[in-house]
Design a protein that fits this description.
By secondary structure, the chain is mostly helical. A two-stranded antiparallel ribbon has the order 1-2. It is globular, with a radius of gyration of 16 Å.
C-alpha cells in the first residue's frame, strides 16, 4: 500500500494537471458559454500554461513549493475571479504540505484549508453553483477513512469532485454574473466545478475516458494510471 507521494511524483502529477487544463480549454469554454462569458477555458489554459512554465523553470523541489509555484502562476496569469480562487486553492494547499512528500493527512488538511479560504475569498458557499460544490465533497473524501492507499484516495477525491460538479446542473447560481440567469442556468454545470474536477482527475491519474461535452467525472471509471504523463 502506497501511503505517500514523493516530490518527484508530485511534480509529474502537477505537470499532468497543467497539460490537462490546457487540453480542456474548449470543453470549459463551451460550458461557460451556457451560463457566462464563454472565456473560462481560455483563462484556465493561459494560467496553467504559465504554471507549467513555472514548474519546469523551478526544477525539482519540495511538494509545498511546487504547489505554491502553481498557485502564484495562476494568480498572476489567469486574471479575474478564476485567478483568485484557483490560485487560492493551490496556495492554501501549499501551506499545509510541509514535508518532503504528500501523505493522506496533508490532503485532508490542505483541501479543508482550501475550502475555507476559497469560500472566504469568493464570498460563496456550497450550494451556490460554484467550484465550491466540487471542492466541498472532495475535501470530505480526503478526510474520510484513514490509512488508505493514497493513490486510491486521490481517485476517490476526483470522483467526489465529479459528483459535485454534476450536481451543480440542478442548482441556481447565487453569485457572479450567472446569478442573473436564474432558472435558465438549470441543466448546465458550473464551469469552475468542472475545472476543479479536471484538476483532481489529472492529479490522480484518473482516465475518465470519452464523455459528452460538459459532463463531469461522476460516472467515469476511476483508477490510478501507472504514472502520470
Amino acid at each position: 500500500m502506497a501511503d505517500r507521494l514523493d516530490a518527484g511524483d508530485v511534480r509529474e502529477r502537477l505537470l499532468a494537471v497543467c497539460r490537462a487544463l490546457q487540453a480542456a480549454r474548449d470543453e470549459l469554454s463551451a460550458a461557460d458559454r451556457e451560463i457566462g462569458d464563454g472565456d473560462h477555458g481560455v483563462t484556465m489554459a493561459r494560467g496553467f500554461a504559465a504554471a507549467e512554465e513555472a514548474l519546469r523553470a523551478a526544477g525539482p523541489g519540495l511538494p509545498g513549493a511546487q504547489f505554491r509555484a502553481v498557485g502564484m502562476a495562476l494568480m498572476s496569469h489567469c486574471g479575474g475571479a478564476a485567478g483568485i480562487v484557483f490560485g487560492t486553492l493551490f496556495l492554501s494547499m501549499a501551506r499545509e504540505i510541509r514535508g518532503d512528500a504528500i501523505e493522506a493527512g496533508d490532503l485532508c488538511r490542505g483541501l479543508r484549508a482550501a475550502l475555507e479560504a476559497v469560500a472566504r475569498r469568493g464570498g460563496a458557499k456550497p450550494g451556490d453553483k460554484t467550484m465550491l460544490d466540487a471542492l466541498a465533497p472532495a475535501a470530505e473524501a480526503a478526510c474520510g477513512e484513514p490509512r488508505k492507499d493514497i493513490r486510491r484516495l486521490l481517485a476517490e477525491i476526483a470522483a467526489a469532485a465529479g459528483r459535485g460538479a454534476e450536481a451543480t446542473r440542478e442548482m441556481l447560481p447565487r453569485t457572479g454574473k450567472a446569478k442573473t440567469l436564474g432558472e435558465r442556468a438549470l441543466g448546465h454545470p458550473d464551469p469552475g466545478a468542472l475545472s476543479l474536477t479536471r484538476i483532481f482527475e489529472a492529479f490522480a491519474g484518473v482516465d475518465a475516458g470519452p464523455r459528452k461535452q460538459g459532463a463531469s467525472a461522476a460516472g467515469a471509471t476511476t483508477g490510478d494510471r501507472e504514472a502520470p504523463r
